[in-house]
C-alpha cells in the first residue's frame, strides 16, 4: 500500500513537473474544480505550453516502461494526434534511455552461465537500441556470425507489477464513477494489457514466436524474419541474427533508394491479411521501431520484422465472421453485419437485430460519402465495435488486438503511400479466402488434415463395428421388452376400466350384506344369514374373481 502511495505521489509530481496539466481542458471542469484546482493549474501555464510534445515524451520516459509503452501505442495514431506530439512520441520507439552496458553484461553471463568473452568474439557494451522493456547490443559469435543480443532491463518486472497495480486502482475507480464504466470494462482492459506486457518479459516466448513466424514465411518474397540462436536464448537474454535494413519510418532514406512506395505499402497490407487469415498468427506490435525494409531490389522491396513478443491469433469462427463482416460492410449490407454479430455471440442473443442494424447504419453510412480509398479500414472496425458495445458487446481481446494492429498497419501504409486504397488490396484476398472455406478444395483440405487420424484408427474399425452392432442389437432387444411391457400394461388398464362397474357393484353387494345382517330381527336370523351370505359371495365374485 505504501509503495502504491509513493508511486502515485511520484506520478502526480511528474505531471506537475512537466506541466502535463496543460493537456487538461480547464473550461470543461465542474465549477467547484474550475475555481479551485483550475486556478492553481493556471499558474505558469502559458509558459508551459511550448514544446508540449517533448514534455509529454520526457514525462513518459521518467515514469517507466508502462508509460513508455503507452506512448509507443499513441505514436502510431497520427490521425488522432497533432504532428508535434506524434513526432516526439515516435522517439520512444527505440530511444528510451539505456541502462549501463556493464549491467547488461552481468545479466548475460548469469543467464547463459558463461563469460561474455567465452561466448562472443566481440561484444559492444554500448547499446544499439534501447526500448521500454529491453535493450539490444551488437556482438559477433566465435563462429563469425554477426548477431544482436537482447537483454531484459534489470528489476523491470517489479516496476511493471507496481504500475499495473496503480492501473487497476484507476480502472476500478473509473468503473465505479463513470456512466460508461460497465460498457468500457476498464478492469478487463487492464487485465489484457497486463497479460500482454508480462509476456514481453519472457524472451524465451519471443524466440518461440519468432521461430513460428519465420516458418510461416519461409522462402517468402514479402517478409524476412531473422534467425534465432537457440543455444544462447533464455528468459532474460535472446541472441538473434543481425539484420541490415532501412527503418520503415525513414521515408527520406527509402526515397533515396528509389523504393517503389506503392508496392511497399500494398505488400504490408498483404502480409497482415496473410498472417491473420492464412496463418492465424499475426505480429501484433507492428510499430515502426519493429519494421525494416530490404531495399536491395527497389521495385520489389521486402519487409523485415523483429520483436515478436506480442502475437495474436483468431480461431476459424472469428476469421469467418470477421471476413463476412468486412465484405458485408463494403456492400452496405448492414442487416447482415448485425446478424453476424448476434450469430457469432459477440453481442447477446436477445439483441434486437433491427435496432442494431439501424445503429450500424447511422455510424457507417457517412463513411461512404468519401472516396473508397479515403475510408479508413481500421476506423470501420473501430466504428463497428464501438456501436456493438452500446448493445452490450463484451470485450473480445483477440479482436481488440487485431483492431490495434490493423490501425497500425493502415497508418504506416498511408505514411508510405498516401493514396493507398486498402480496400482494393484487401477485398480480393478476403473474397478468395471465403471461397476457399467452401467447396471441393476445402473438403479436400479437411480430408487431408484428418487422414492421419483416420489411418491410425483403421485397424480398430472391425472391432468398433462389431461392438456397435452388438450394442445396437441389445438396445433393440431392450426396447422390444419395454414395448411388450407397455402393451401388457395397456391391456391390463383396458380390462380394469371394463370391469370397473362390476367392482363397484361388488362393493355395494358386500355393504348390503352387512346392512341386511344388522337390520333383520333376531327371530328371522336364519333367513338373514342366507341373504347376507348370498350378497357377500356375489361381492367377492365381482371384486376378485371377475376377470
Automatic annotation (TrEMBL):
<keyword id="KW-1133">Transmembrane helix</keyword>
<dbReference type="InterPro" id="IPR010232">
    <property type="entry name" value="UbiB"/>
</dbReference>
<keyword id="KW-0830">Ubiquinone</keyword>
<dbReference type="InterPro" id="IPR045308">
    <property type="entry name" value="UbiB_bact"/>
</dbReference>
<feature type="domain" description="ABC1 atypical kinase-like">
    <location>
        <begin position="91"/>
        <end position="340"/>
    </location>
</feature>
<keyword id="KW-0067">ATP-binding</keyword>
<dbReference type="InterPro" id="IPR050154">
    <property type="entry name" value="UbiB_kinase"/>
</dbReference>
<protein>
    <recommendedName>
        <fullName>Probable protein kinase UbiB</fullName>
        <ecNumber>2.7.-.-</ecNumber>
    </recommendedName>
</protein>
<feature type="binding site">
    <location>
        <position position="150"/>
    </location>
    <ligand>
        <name>ATP</name>
    </ligand>
</feature>
<feature type="binding site">
    <location>
        <begin position="128"/>
        <end position="136"/>
    </location>
    <ligand>
        <name>ATP</name>
    </ligand>
</feature>
<keyword id="KW-0997">Cell inner membrane</keyword>
<dbReference type="GO" id="GO:0004672">
    <property type="term" value="F:protein kinase activity"/>
</dbReference>
<keyword id="KW-0547">Nucleotide-binding</keyword>
<dbReference type="InterPro" id="IPR004147">
    <property type="entry name" value="ABC1_dom"/>
</dbReference>
<feature type="coiled-coil region">
    <location>
        <begin position="472"/>
        <end position="499"/>
    </location>
</feature>
<feature type="active site" description="Proton acceptor">
    <location>
        <position position="285"/>
    </location>
</feature>
<keyword id="KW-0808">Transferase</keyword>
<keyword id="KW-0418">Kinase</keyword>
<dbReference type="GO" id="GO:0010795">
    <property type="term" value="P:regulation of ubiquinone biosynthetic process"/>
</dbReference>
<feature type="transmembrane region" description="Helical">
    <location>
        <begin position="500"/>
        <end position="516"/>
    </location>
</feature>
<comment type="similarity">
    <text>Belongs to the ABC1 family. UbiB subfamily.</text>
</comment>
<comment type="similarity">
    <text>Belongs to the protein kinase superfamily. ADCK protein kinase family.</text>
</comment>
<keyword id="KW-1003">Cell membrane</keyword>
<dbReference type="InterPro" id="IPR011009">
    <property type="entry name" value="Kinase-like_dom_sf"/>
</dbReference>
<dbReference type="GO" id="GO:0006744">
    <property type="term" value="P:ubiquinone biosynthetic process"/>
</dbReference>
<dbReference type="GO" id="GO:0005886">
    <property type="term" value="C:plasma membrane"/>
</dbReference>
<keyword id="KW-0831">Ubiquinone biosynthesis</keyword>
<keyword id="KW-0472">Membrane</keyword>
<keyword id="KW-0812">Transmembrane</keyword>
<comment type="function">
    <text>Is probably a protein kinase regulator of UbiI activity which is involved in aerobic coenzyme Q (ubiquinone) biosynthesis.</text>
</comment>
<comment type="pathway">
    <text>Cofactor biosynthesis; ubiquinone biosynthesis [regulation].</text>
</comment>
<dbReference type="GO" id="GO:0005524">
    <property type="term" value="F:ATP binding"/>
</dbReference>
<dbReference type="Pfam" id="PF03109">
    <property type="entry name" value="ABC1"/>
</dbReference>
<keyword id="KW-0175">Coiled coil</keyword>
<feature type="transmembrane region" description="Helical">
    <location>
        <begin position="528"/>
        <end position="545"/>
    </location>
</feature>
